[in-house]
Amino acid sequence: MDRQGVYGPKPRPLIGNILDMASLVSKSTSKDMDHIHHDIVGRLLPHYVAWSKQYGKRFIYWNGMEPRMCLAETGLIMELLTKYSTKVGKSWLQQQGSKHFIGRGLLMANGNDWYHQRRIVAPAFMGDRLKKNAGHMVECTNQMLQSLQNAVESGETEFEIGEYMTRLTADIISRTEFGTGCEKGKQIFRLLTGLQRLCAQASRHLCFPGSRFVPNKYNREIKSLKMEVERLLMEIIQSRKDCVEIGRSSSYGNDLLGMLLNEMQKKRGNNGFSLNLQLIMDECKTFFFAGHETTALLLTWTVMLLASNPSWQDKVRAEVMQVCNGGTPSLDHLSKLTLLNMVINESLRLYPPATLLPRMAFEDIKLGDLYIPKGLSIWIPVLAIHHSEELWGKDSNEFNPNRFASKSSGPGRHFIPFAAGQRNCIGQSFAIMEAKIILAMLISRFSFTISESYRHAPVVVLTIKPKYGVQVCLKPLNL
Asked: Starting from the edge strand earliest in sequence, which strands make up the sheet with 377-380, in order?
């Protein structure tokens, strides 16, 4: 890449620039932020800030022995994600890092496997099936709101809202996947949470040759948790299969698991692709993680933003009351909640689920004026793009939902929380519908302010999380 004028920091043998990145992140996150503000790129991506100042919007760095090009030019990014969506995908390192977590589910699949997996699961997030899920969302949210109401009536005033949102979205995705908020679903949620944390820690060492074979504490715990998750999933799957085999049910069901099991019964097609039990379990883990983790964080950060911006909280509440007329939000209502949609978009801009979006080239490609050789990983700094003063103006680090008032300010080159192109997030419509329903119901039942105990300290553990949670004070509305 030197010949094309793309440079970067000098790598060390075997480990590349890993120690440099680790040192910068350790230093930038060693202290909590002194107050709530949203200038977080330097905190979470200090290496990007340092190297982009020195080398520009495109530079090369090394993750161990894997070369990566960081690319922050939005025109080239959209070309990569749309024109070359079938020629790029997830790297071997990424797949190994999530092997025991979500396996080879849709999120980590490439090529024809990705195409066929996407075709199978897409109907679960479209049309009538998507609308049907709204009922689960309302039912689960009502249960959470009643739990909060009971706690308030018993004298509690402060709540770590992230815990409630995480349990709520896990319950919703459990019903969507398995048709019920079963106890096994709750156990899987707890185990996957631990597995995510361990895999994130272990993935830091993947760049070292042979590290995944070392029987250290992380690897032993990861394998143990993986086996327990898959044991529980197999019990759910076997129960569904037994119901069909003994004639208690004529189909495997219309939820995600049922769709996957129905597909597995089909003979291998001419394309050579077929589902097996391991892949079904990987898909279940993938959607259980992606279906609750990112939405729970979107909700948590949005509540934090509304709690610390009371004027916007009042505006959104007034809109919800007017549109829903004091009742439960329906699907027809959701499209009319314009201010709420603007707030959600601004939350996704300031605190996108992922700081980075990676793509590896599976063949040589021409990207604008750049020749990208096969095997080069391209890393898109989503967080930095979302906070760019050049793209968003001088208030790029401020909470200003009005920037999304115009339809032209929606998804596009500068706003990519769900990626773009064919490999965009398959569940984005599900996530936005879920977020709107939950926030509309919460804001019409309670007012909320930031607690004095809240410490603003975003950190990255695969996704952007509040290090200590988000503590808010709730007050029931007497309507």
From this structure: 58-63, 66-71, 377-380, 357-361, 88-89
- Whole-angstrom distance, CA of residue 204 vs CA of residue 463: 15
Planar angle of CA 212, 109, 165, nearest 5 degrees: 85
**Alpha carbon distance 457, 29 (integer Å):** 8
The number of domains in the chain is: 1
Residue 447 forms beta bridges with which residues?
475
CA dist 267 and 244 (Å) reads 18
Distance of CA 160 to the CA centre of its chain: 20
Q: Three-class SS string for 304-359?
A: HHHHCCHHHHHHHHHHHHHHHCCCCCCHHHHCCCHHHHHHHHHHHHHCCCCCCEEE
Indicate which CATH number applies to the domain containing 50: 1.10.630.10
As separate numbers, helices (DSSP H) first and strands (DSSP E) second, the chain gives: 18, 12
Phi and psi dihedrals of 402, rounded to 5?
Answer: -60, -20
Global pTM? 0.92
* Whether 305 contacts 399, CB under 8 Å: yes
Backbone CA torsion sign across 439, 445, 448, 453: negative
- Closest alpha carbon to 297 in 423, 461, 120: 461
Q: Cβ(226)–Cβ(100) under 8 Å?
A: yes
Distance CA 235, CA 245 (A): 15
Q: Does position 98 have pLDDT exceeding 90, yes or no?
A: no
Residues with Cβ < 8 Å from 263, sequence gap 6 or more? 120, 275
What would the pLDDT profile of 227-255 be if each residue is shown by its tens digit? 888 898 888 888 888 877 776 666 787 78
Largest CA distance in the chain: 68
Q: What is the DSSP string of 380-443?
A: E-HHHHHT-HHHH-TTTTS--GGGGSSGGGSSBTTB-TT--STTS-TTHHHHHHHHHHHHHHHH
At residue 440, φ and ψ (nearest 5 deg) are -65, -40
* Half-sphere exposure for 300 (CA within 13 Å, toward CB): 32
> What type of residue is 254?
N
Task: Tell me the residue range of the domain where 24 lies.
Answer: 2-476
Is 425 among the annotated ligand-binding positions? yes
Query: Which DSSP string corresponds to 62-90?
Result: EETTEEEEEE--HHHHHHHHHTTTTTEE-
Closest CA to 123 of 430, 329, 457: 430
The model's pLDDT over 265-322, given as tens digits with 9 standing for 90+, comes to: 775 555 556 788 889 889 888 888 887 889 999 999 999 999 999 999 999 999 999 9
